[in-house]
Amino acid sequence: MSRQSFLLKIDKSPDIQSNLQLSLQNKFSGLLTTIVDDGYKRILLDEKVAERQQCFTRSPLIFKANDWLYSIFPMINMTNILDSSSSEVRKNYKLLLDQEFNFINHVKPRGYYYIRPTCEPETVAKFLLEKIEKTGNDLIFIVEIELHSQKNYTRMYRRDLSPIEEDIEDTWMYWNAIHKAANYHQRIEVAIVLSSDLPSNELEIYRWFGEPVIMLVIPHNTFTTNSSNFPVMTKKQQEIVKMFMQNLKLYIVIEPKSSSDHRIKSYLEYIEYLSKSLDRSSEEEKDCLKYPLQPLHDNLDFSTYEVFERDPAKYILYQRAIENALKDMISEEEKETRKAIVLLVGAGRGPLIRSTLNAATNTHKKVKIIAVEKNPNAIVTLTCLIKQLWPDKEIELIAKDMRNIVLEEKADILVSELLGSFGDNELSPECLDGVQHLLKPTGVSIPANSKSYIQPIMTKRTYGQVQKRKGENKKREMHSEHTEVNWLIYSTNIFHIDNFKEVFTFVHPNNDNPIDNSRYGKFHFESSIDCILHGFSGYFSSKLYKDIEISIVPDSHTKGMISWYSVFFPIATPIQLKKGDKIEVEFWRKCNTEKVWYEWKVNAPEETIVHNLNGEIHPIFLA
Amino acid sequence: MSRQSFLLKIDKSPDIQSNLQLSLQNKFSGLLTTIVDDGYKRILLDEKVAERQQCFTRSPLIFKANDWLYSIFPMINMTNILDSSSSEVRKNYKLLLDQEFNFINHVKPRGYYYIRPTCEPETVAKFLLEKIEKTGNDLIFIVEIELHSQKNYTRMYRRDLSPIEEDIEDTWMYWNAIHKAANYHQRIEVAIVLSSDLPSNELEIYRWFGEPVIMLVIPHNTFTTNSSNFPVMTKKQQEIVKMFMQNLKLYIVIEPKSSSDHRIKSYLEYIEYLSKSLDRSSEEEKDCLKYPLQPLHDNLDFSTYEVFERDPAKYILYQRAIENALKDMISEEEKETRKAIVLLVGAGRGPLIRSTLNAATNTHKKVKIIAVEKNPNAIVTLTCLIKQLWPDKEIELIAKDMRNIVLEEKADILVSELLGSFGDNELSPECLDGVQHLLKPTGVSIPANSKSYIQPIMTKRTYGQVQKRKGENKKREMHSEHTEVNWLIYSTNIFHIDNFKEVFTFVHPNNDNPIDNSRYGKFHFESSIDCILHGFSGYFSSKLYKDIEISIVPDSHTKGMISWYSVFFPIATPIQLKKGDKIEVEFWRKCNTEKVWYEWKVNAPEETIVHNLNGEIHPIFLA
């Protein structure tokens, strides 16, 4: 889905064949439609189901198996007859639905099944769980939910409702009740139907970004007609559609008035036009969940270095920081006589050597570089680079752990890139503490500090991915307590429940005596709307030198810097939040002689366990 | 790999960059070469390893990570220095190899590693197992083995060998010793090097088809030059290369004299030309392992029916059988007055209705078809077909299990297609016994019989796949005793140890009283060469009517018939066989009121367990 995918929705298909052709000719990926005739079903309610089973739909042979599998997206209506007070009616309708389901499952045993419910949430959940039990993991149910409830429309046929009733239903409540009753099953996702009216509270829209939304349905009546007689949307609606396309991997479902709506192509072109203004460059990586690197424990491999070096922003900022430090340190008068000793710890395949050499050239200052690297495989590369590219530069290579080296002369500048997504989570403080005695008293460290941040989030998809990792038994992922690991995530399928808050700070060089790198904090947030707390996003920012900063905090993210995902601290059991609920959470950074680890615990509105107690689940090893 | 894939092999690459370019320009998939300089390694034997580690190869930065991952196939020489009597030399060489390995693993953490050993089999196995332990499942080791040992060449530098020594080494023994010592690890595969001399015993070639061969290396000296000055092969060598390409999914590795061998393109074109005459139509499906269908227990889905109906041979033979039966049954005089009642059990989506209607039309006989089908989803299709395609034909549809139907008038012809790959393994006998009382005493059954066959085989790859299925927990595959299931396989990566033997026969209608569908037999085979017994292939043949037969037995496989894979009855522990070893195996077909099952047990040359005892592992359910 790197290009936006589209589906055509035509509820009733008297001629499903020509409708599929219509959709494919117009470059839709497929047709979303009911398979079983409604007329037949209505009759059935009065008759015996078993005897009529032989002709309840059109022949499935109109399509090849592959058409069914890949181009047809079946829709199942699940009306409130399922809640009928008559057990006879209820049973008969359930039999009908079962038959419809079995037939669809026969022609299309996997893929997406689109469910349009108008019955009680518990009834929907029960039905879906029953079917999930009987089918394979590659069958996903999509529940249709309107972005905004159209009460007025409902009133047109519900004569029992008073016409002055004003309370607008929050449709998320209905969805959440279904999903909760189905134990948030990961094989149940959502289709959001755009409406011409929009919720007055924008958070009601943003909250969907925390849900597993897989389709955005755009009905014909959300379009108006412009002066050139083309279908267009309001600014606000355009924005919403773009946000959905930008943040979520989903199908855009176009719902024309009927199959003879002559504007089908125009709807599609309009949305395609909207999608063109979006940045889809990192689409492929989206919804990525990774176990954090442990660079002190493992040696990074060649391609990991390559990916890091590809960052277009990071090394330019490092270079600028080194330039400024050189300028401050060596005056114009001294520049022929003085040479700055740059101690570069964690040289990898040499990007910071390059930044330092560039900085020296640009500022016309002399430098001697001492490059330290513990990975013997990276040393091979560095040796070749120095021999081939920089034979005339003063570069000394030390193939050791930075915490064990000895220098004849102390350094003027200590340069490192040891920061993780949560700042100190790759043990930058411990490493720099171990080497800072080699820095002159007047020396500077680049970076000069690091800060971490957390933010409460709702993210069912990421949380679901975390749960799926359970039982994985790769080398570094031996823990089944998957919800007590601070994962790395790259996802925009997230709703931010409140603003972020600063957590821990580390300053380099660290002049404390004794040095204590353990930390603790208690943080408070407030829920802006009814939603679910799945855990906390973690970010970092760092001052490299004076005003030169790098950051992955949402508000101030360094432009173009791609090296870091966010951190995700899940909680063992998601918490249902009411609007205005106060969230209190405690975070610890703990250390012993072998490892460093984080612990976290929510105190309010509900108390959780202490996650990663004693670092038993997710230790960060010191060696 | 649906088109044949080629690699270029250049052992020593002083200029690895231009060699890679050479290979890609000539449309090879990649370059097979050593990464670490041999010269460096020789020096190292006398020096301290640690101090020189900084420059033991060329810079890895000459390639991007993706080149390393996808285009470079590293080769590691593992000489008999590893078996040196001096523990100092041994240790030093091991350190060197470790360093070489670690560096390769740094630039290319997964993919194929080509190992060229000249040391003791146990030494090779130990080294590989040690590395397997430390790396991921996506790293595969390939051990280079010569198809035919070139003793004479060896003698050129081994002055200690008497020049008259005649015994030619069987290279499979060396490989088998390595693989056995490595416990047949599935991450160890083979590269076979073609030679100008060939083994005199052809079985020594065929036996490799039971091994996980992933590369066939063709050195330049296997080519001769024809009158037009083009490289060509002998007829026999052509045959061997073709057999390898036809039967195995592998890389063809071209090994020129050197990178300046001007015939590189000609070698490639020659082999490509050979590959063009091969049938690669079913390439994608190859090496496929499936859990057998249980059509009595589960309803088949739409696409399964579609695949079966696509068979170009089966339904034509059924049609011909029905034609012949109609001709024998109804004389020309009767053809206006008499109508044959054809009872069609298991009608599916109607292919046999079509065959019957065609047969009636072709023979100008009248038929009434009674089509029985228990799958309600297939009934939907049949109903539509009858309504739309055959409204004027006499077709009665009965939506029931064939064992429970009642007819007003008995049938003349009973037609069914209930045979599995082992004939009776989808319970064709039980089903037909249950319906044959509806056949007139003069009536015939199509098919008239079924026979099963077994054949002892060596097939490491398939056996490995069976082992991988362990722990899978899909609905129908809940058993961990994966070696006690009679799997369906489609593979040509198999060596047939001896000819097949007939096992069980069933005749329809069955006039025995009482009917007993249990069976037992004891069968004897002989090993034609040293090899390994992994289990037994199973096949079937069936007489449809008089001389019209269908068969999947290798010698008499019905041309173009694609509906059936073979069966694979694995044994719990593979047995090493010596040439001439007698194999005795017992097979049981057992039945009770709920299920049918097979048991099998090898008695000689070694005794195994009774596989699938009491049908607890792999029952075939009667309902």
TrEMBL record, chains A, B:
Transmembrane segments: none annotated. Residues 281-446 form the PRMT5 arginine-N-methyltransferase domain. The active site is at 417 (proton donor/acceptor), 426 (proton donor/acceptor). One of its GO terms (biological process) is regulation of DNA-templated transcription. InterPro entries: Arg_MeTrfase, Arg_MeTrfase_PRMT5, PRMT5, PRMT5_C, PRMT5_TIM, SAM-dependent_MTases_sf. Keywords: Methyltransferase, S-adenosyl-L-methionine, Transferase. The record marks 308 as: Critical for specifying symmetric addition of methyl groups. The keyword Transferase applies. Gene3D superfamilies: Divalent-metal-dependent TIM barrel enzymes, Hnrnp arginine n-methyltransferase1, Vaccinia Virus protein VP39. One of its GO terms (molecular function) is protein-arginine N-methyltransferase activity. SUPFAM superfamilies: S-adenosyl-L-methionine-dependent methyltransferases. Residues 28-277 form the PRMT5 TIM barrel domain. GO terms for cellular component: cytosol; nucleus. S-adenosyl-L-methionine binds at residues 305, 314-315, 373, 401-402. It comes from the Eukaryota. PANTHER family: PROTEIN ARGININE N-METHYLTRANSFERASE 5. Belongs to the class I-like SAM-binding methyltransferase superfamily. This is Protein arginine N-methyltransferase.
